[in-house]
TrEMBL record:
The lineage of its organism: Bacteria, Pseudomonadati, Pseudomonadota, Alphaproteobacteria, Hyphomicrobiales. NCBIfam families: leuB. PROSITE patterns: IDH_IMDH. InterPro entries: IsoCit/isopropylmalate_DH_CS, IsoPropMal-DH-like_dom, Isopropylmalate_DH. SMART domains: Iso_dh (SM01329). Gene3D superfamilies: Isopropylmalate Dehydrogenase. Pfam families: Iso_dh (PF00180). It catalyses: (2R,3S)-3-isopropylmalate + NAD(+) = 4-methyl-2-oxopentanoate + CO2 + NADH. GO terms for cellular component: cytosol. This is 3-isopropylmalate dehydrogenase. The gene is leuB. Mg(2+) binds at residues 225, 249, 253. It comes from Faunimonas pinastri. Keywords: Amino-acid biosynthesis, Branched-chain amino acid biosynthesis, Cytoplasm, Leucine biosynthesis, Magnesium, Manganese, Metal-binding, NAD, Oxidoreductase. Catalyzes the oxidation of 3-carboxy-2-hydroxy-4-methylpentanoate (3-isopropylmalate) to 3-carboxy-4-methyl-2-oxopentanoate. The product decarboxylates to 4-methyl-2 oxopentanoate.
Length: 363
């Protein structure tokens, strides 16, 4: 089967790192390892420069018709003054919203070659391989009311509302349980049921879904604050962590720091399976932004972007073996001592974006 892939490099280092992904995708096509039909579009500041919007309707249509979207990064000081509705980030938010990407997957993997150079305790991070599944479209970031009201006596009240309904918890839970089956078969659900009603419901629903649909997967519950502590103390106790939008935002940033550089971290955002085809809408992107401080210098680390392609192979197309090979190529290249500036350490060889990409492709 031919898969339709939409590439949206965006701005800054998004463009530079996507070049390395394009080379790998072309290679896979040429070698008959996969069959991709790729289209490329504009998003973010570059889209604004071209037609005054952060993403055009034409490219939104392409995104909804694609089997997966690979997204680089958007933004930069050049667009600081543009109107709020068309700022570069609006393109990203529009994609997440229109594709209804409710599940955000953030792996935290510590490659052996980097564990040695980590500022954290070697035994804590070496061999780390966990996956945080964050609910992305609900919770306190979206719940109503959401407002600042003037109380009239020189006081104001800021209000955000945490809301979760059963179906939202069920569907993110199912994503986590399904993923756990392909990994270590363990899910840890995190909430604060001790102080939040939405946490009580979260806990109830996860427990029921686990019991009724995934009794083969081990399910633990942990209070989210304690979970944060455990993530730093002994992260290897976890396999898949599933949590809400707010806690997931914080916990995934903590987990990111266990792995080294922002330049190493991929992510995936998945939607619900289509009722007819069973296919999920999905977008894959590095966690980092457009890095204006290093853009255009050819020194950005392309690994987060390349690892995002590996996630795409794995989760959208079920090409597990090819994904494994790509991830192993990354790991082997690091073992050879090649490093971009952001992960450079003593005794290693510093290379630029192109050289790192080419070395991984050669592997
Ligand atoms: P950033 O992630 O772009 O950069 C943070 C720091 O990490 C910088 O020092 C940068 O040089 C470094 N860095 C990031 N990725 C790297 C890589 N692949 N290789 C080597 N070094 C890397 O975050 P920042 O500086 O806060 O934001 C810059 C712009 O990116 C802003 O306009 C922001 O709005 C946007 N942004 C976009 C995101 C997206 O498109 N998903 C996410 C985060 C920020
Ligand atoms: Mg965050």
């Amino acid at each position: 089967t031919t898969h339709k892939l939409l590439l949206l490099p965006g701005d800054g280092i998004g463009v530079e790192t996507m070049e390395e992904v394009k080379a790998i995708v072309s290679f896979m096509n040429e070698e008959g390892l996969a069959s991709f039909e790729t289209e490329e579009g504009l998003v973010g500041g570059s889209a604004y420069d071209a037609h005054g919007k952060a993403i055009s309707e034409e490219h939104m249509k392409l995104a909804t018709e694609s089997d997966a979207v690979l997204f680089g990064a958007v933004g930069g000081p050049k667009w600081d003054g543009v109107p709020y509705e068309v700022r570069p980030e609006a393109g990203l938010l529009r994609l997440r919203k229109d594709l209804a990407l409710f599940a955000n997957l953030r792996p935290a993997i510590c490659y052996p070659a980097l564990a040695a150079a980590s500022s954290l305790k070697h035994e804590v991070v070496e061999g780390l391989d966990i996956l945080i599944v964050r609910e992305l479209t609900g919770g306190v970031y979206f719940g109503e009311p959401k407002e600042i009201t003037d109380l009239g006596n020189g006081q104001k009240r800021g209000v955000d509302t945490q809301v979760y309904e059963t179906y939202e918890i069920e569907r993110i839970g199912r994503v986590a349980f399904e993923l756990a089956r392909t990994r270590g078969n363990k899910v840890t659900s995190m909430e604060k049921r001790n102080v939040m009603k939405s946490g009580v419901l979260w806990n109830e629903v996860m427990t029921r879904v686990g019991r009724e649909e995934y009794s083969d997967v081990k399910l633990d519950h942990m209070l989210a604050d304690s979970g944060g502590m455990q993530l730093v103390r002994w992260p290897k106790q976890f396999d898949v962590i599933v949590t809400d939008n707010l806690f997931g935002d914080l916990l995934s940033d903590i987990a990111a720091m266990l792995t080294g550089s922002l330049g190493m971290l991929p992510s995936a955002s998945l939607g619900a399976p289509d009722e007819r085809s069973g296919k999920r809408k999905a977008m894959y992107e590095p966690v980092h932004g457009s890095a204006p401080d290093i853009a255009g210098q050819g020194i950005a680390n392309p690994i987060a972007m390349i690892a995002s392609l590996a996630m795409c192979l794995r989760y959208s197309f079920g090409m597990v073996e090819l994904a494994d090979r790509l991830e192993k190529a990354i790991s082997d290249t690091l073992n050879d001592g090649l490093r971009t500036k952001d992960i450079m350490s003593e005794g290693a060889r510093e290379v630029g974006t192109r050289e790192m990409g080419a070395a991984i492709l050669a592997k």
